[in-house]
Specification:
By secondary structure, this protein is mainly alpha-helical. It has two domains: 4-190 and 298-327, HUPs (Rossmann fold, 3-Layer(aba) Sandwich); 212-290, Tyrosyl-Transfer RNA Synthetase. The chain has helices at 17-30, 42-49, 56-70, 86-96, 101-105, 108-116, 125-128, 130-139, 153-170, 212-220, 241-249, 252-263, 269-295, 298-327; strands spanning 4-9, 35-40, 77-81, 145-148, 181-184. The strands form two sheets. Strands 1-2-3 form a three-stranded parallel sheet. The chain starts with a strand and ends with a helix. The relative contact order is 0.14.
């Protein structure tokens, strides 16, 4: 048996290049060596946007189409929707009975988001408890690994602590819920068009299935080295947001051409941007082609999710039988 991996994404709609290079690209790669479970974390979306759900269904399926377009293979990965599986909520509730409140309050992202999302009322049990819901998402499938970047590793650690405590309280010397391991992944952090974090809400993103003309327009309008005011001024690539895209998309020779041309004013900024435009369009072409197949037959996308959800349900129900038995709730 291949080791099982579990990961999920909040449904924010169509994904952008930051999502692909930050997580989805790695998901595709993991399919070759792992049994992969990838889920739509729609309950997690409600922890911060509980009053804004009008587009939730559309966002769910837009995101799934992007997963499939990127190369997620439903024959090699189980795709499912979190809210279709009430077993997640049941395990979340049972784990909450024995999880100290202080464990949730110390999660770094809880404090960070409380400061960052000042415009939202996040003084809710759902927001405080989302790391525990995340733990239930992982533990119910007995995942061996959770692929994350370093900034997300505290979520895996609290999951390990929750599993350890549950086994201590109810396991009677046996492991009911195995502790998952962190699978630190090499991910490319692609900035937004303005150099800040790529975000749809900030308007600095390029969608995975962005129209070619729009890709070209957006990249051509990217800010460059602020000290390079005129074409004849020399620049410094490290001060230019476009250079971050070259680091990801361009080969060694192209990057050398950029450095020489920029620092000597041998090339203009529009010339510098063209290889980035060309590289993004090449990357997107197979995504658009695969997406068209699914967009032309939305029932097939729903069927893929339905099959994956039922596959996940079988496993989730088995785990919950074991959990109830350990807790003396099988009556």
């Amino acid at each position: 048996m291949k080791p099982r991996v579990l990961s999920g994404m909040r449904p924010t709609g169509a994904l952008h290049l930051g999502h692909y290079h930050g997580a989805l690209k790695n998901w595709v790669r993991l399919q070759d060596e792992h049994e992969c479970f990838y889920f739509v974390a729609d309950w997690h979306a409600l922890t911060t946007h509980y009053d804004d759900h009008a587009d939730l269904e559309r966002n769910v399926y837009d995101m799934v189409v992007d997963w499939l377009a990127a190369g997620i293979d439903p024959d090699r990965a189980t795709l499912f929707i979190q809210s279709r599986l009430p077993e997640h909520a049941e395990l979340f509730t049972l784990l909450a009975m024995g999880t100290p409140l202080s464990w949730l309050e110390r999660v770094p992202t809880y404090k960070d988001q409380m400061k960052a999302l000042t415009g939202r009322d996040l003084a809710t049990y759902g927001f405080l408890g989302y790391p525990l819901l995340q733990a239930a998402d992982i533990l119910i499938y007995k995942a061996a690994f959770v692929p994350v970047g370093e900034d997300q590793s505290p979520h895996v650690e609290i999951t390990r602590e929750v599993a350890r405590r549950f086994n201590h309280l109810y396991g009677k010397g046996q492991t009911v819920l195995p502790e998952p391991a962190t699978l630190l992944t090499e991910t490319a952090k692609l900035p937004g068009l303005d150099g800040a974090k790529m975000s749809k809400s900030l308007g600095n993103d390029i969608a995975m299935r962005e129209e070619p003309a729009e890709v070209e327009r957006k990249v051509r309008r990217m800010p460059t080295d602020p000290d390079r005011v005129r074409r004849t001024d020399s620049g410094n690539p490290e001060r230019c947001p476009v250079w971050r895209f070259h680091k990801l998309y361009s080969d060694v020779d192209t990057r050398a051409w950029v450095v020489k041309g920029c620092t000597t004013a041998g090339i203009g900024c529009l010339e510098c941007k063209q290889p980035v435009i060309d590289a993004i369009l090449r990357e997107q072409q197979p995504w658009r082609e695969r997406a068209e197949t699914y967009l032309a037959n939305p029932k097939h996308v729903h069927w893929i999710v339905e099959v994956g959800t039922e596959r996940a349900r079988t496993m989730a129900r088995k785990t919950m039988r074991e959990v109830r038995d350990a807790m003396g709730l099988n009556y």
